[in-house]
Write a structure and sequence with these properties.
This protein has one domain (22-365): TIM Barrel, CATH 3.20.20. Helix content is 42%, strand content 12%. It has helices at residues 5-16, 41-50, 62-65, 75-86, 129-142, 158-161, 168-185, 210-219, 246-260, 285-301, 337-392, and strands at 29-32, 55-61, 90-96, 146-151, 191-193, 229-231, 268-270, 305-310, 394-398, 401-405. The strands form two sheets. An eight-stranded parallel beta sheet has the order 5-4-3-2-1-8-7-6. A two-stranded antiparallel sheet has the order 9-10. Helix 5 packs across helix 7 (168-185), helix 7 (168-185) crosses helix 8 (210-219) and helix 10 runs parallel beside helix 11. It is globular, with a radius of gyration of 29 Å. The two termini are 39 Å apart.
């Protein structure tokens, strides 16, 4: 059969019927950025829209919203999420950072003076997980325009975001609490795990490799407690087509662990990636433009990737790596080459998906029309059959008793 591929294809169509064109999911591309903190929030939002963003990744800290039990302050998230929605963007909301009253009592240097300090980011206390679940429910109900809820940011980097050290088993428990809570009030909202990314080298105390963290998450019961895996595959200074590069290794490892735990249909959400033009892994602005646009284009086309978020809109004033990931200058006045290149890549993928969507709609319309024609043919055939039955019906007399004779074959409906 392998020598006759056309014959094999025809037999497959005859046996299985024509394949249905899949309707592509909506394009989820955006930037990891907080426009309200930019020098000109209105221009920042315009730049999000101009690069083709359909989503915006925004953090909402629990301690900001509920500083005390029973006290709620939705001022900042209302403004931030409302501004994104006004520009036609949905939001990937990252919930994190419990208030002091709901945090673990872990000894952390950054929390010694002020337990609500910006750099104090302890894990939630086990006896306040119900409160955390209620907070997640309030967020889900308050903001209809959410594309997903991401549970923490880089929880494997314990020295930054889950102090004092990463706890994959406890994180899996937190993830399930939030997932179950959100399912009760908004079951169609995806709850995804916090984006995990490779730690710096040498690895700081309290941080874990992506592979180790995700493997232990799964062993602790994370399967079924999330609707997607958040991933931060930063490529450092590796080109996007390097199979041994940092980003490729992270994506490959995540897929291998996911599949090994019988979870192959779980999508990946790339909620941070990017190239920097500053620091030890700096690339040139021209390389950033070419490589980042290729990364965005290729990753959006991967069938198991649901979203791609680039870090970030604008450069920062620092000269370390974090200062050079932007697509525009610090003051938003000058475009780096990457801005136009990424915008072109996003437009290309969006056009492909729109063409696929229209093709799927046309195919669905043809199927509906075919079903209507088949139904009309069946009805006409039944009418003809019933007419034949009536004509064939006759009355005979046998021994003086009338008998009606009809065809044995019944008319199909």
């Amino acid at each position: 059969m392998a020598r006759f591929p056309l014959l094999a294809a025809l037999l497959l169509v005859l046996l299985c019927g024509p394949a249905r064109a899949a309707v592509p999911p909506p394009l989820l591309f955006g930037l990891n950025d907080a426009p309200l903190f930019q020098p000109d929030p209105g221009r920042a939002l315009d730049l999000h829209a101009g690069v083709g963003a359909t989503v915006q990744r925004l953090g909402v800290q629990w301690r900001t919203v509920q500083p005390s039990p029973g006290v709620w302050d939705w001022g900042f998230p209302d403004r931030a999420i409302g501004a994104a929605v006004d520009r036609g963007m949905d939001v990937i909301v990252v919930i994190s950072t419990p208030p002091a009253w709901a945090s673990k009592s872990s000894v952390v240097a950054t929390c010694a003076v002020n337990p609500n300090a910006e750099l104090c980011r302890r894990a939630p206390a086990p006896n306040h997980l119900d409160d955390l679940g209620r907070f997640a429910q309030e967020v889900a109900l308050r903001y209809p325009a959410l594309a997903a809820m991401e549970v923490w940011n880089e929880p494997n980097l314990g020295e930054f975001n889950w102090q004092p050290a990463a706890e994959p088993e406890y994180y899996a428990q937190v993830l399930r609490v939030i997932n179950d809570a959100v399912d009760e009030v908004r079951p169609k909202l995806p709850v995804i795990s916090g984006g995990i990314g490779p730690p710096t080298f040498p690895r700081p105390p309290g941080s874990m490799r992506v592979e180790d963290f995700l493997e232990r998450m799964y062993r602790a019961g994370a399967r079924g407690a999330m609707d997607g895996i958040g991933v931060h595959p930063y490529p450092q200074d590796d080109p996007p087509d390097d199979p041994l590069g940092s980003a490729a290794r992270v994506m490959r490892s995540v897929r291998e662990i996911r599949d090994a735990h019988d979870d192959p249909d779980l999508p990946l959400w790339v909620t941070e990636t990017g190239y920097t033009t500053k620091g030890p892994f700096a690339v040139t602005p021209e390389q950033q433009a070419a490589w980042l646009s290729q990364t965005v284009e290729r990753t959006l086309r991967e069938p198991d990737v649901r979203a791609v978020v680039v870090h970030t809109l604008a450069d920062r004033r620092s000269n370390d790596a974090d200062g050079g990931y932007g697509l525009v200058s610090v003051d938003l006045s000058q475009f780096k080459p990457a801005y136009a290149a990424v915008a072109a890549a996003v437009r290309g993928v969006a056009a492909e998906r729109e063409a696929a969507r229209r093709a799927a709609q046309r195919a669905a319309a043809r199927r509906r029309a075919a079903r209507r024609r088949a139904a009309r043919r069946r009805r006409a055939a039944r009418r003809r059959c019933l007419a034949r039955r009536r004509r064939a019906a006759s009355v005979e007399t046998r021994g003086g008793a009338p008998r009606v004779r009809r065809p044995r074959r019944r008319c199909r409906r």
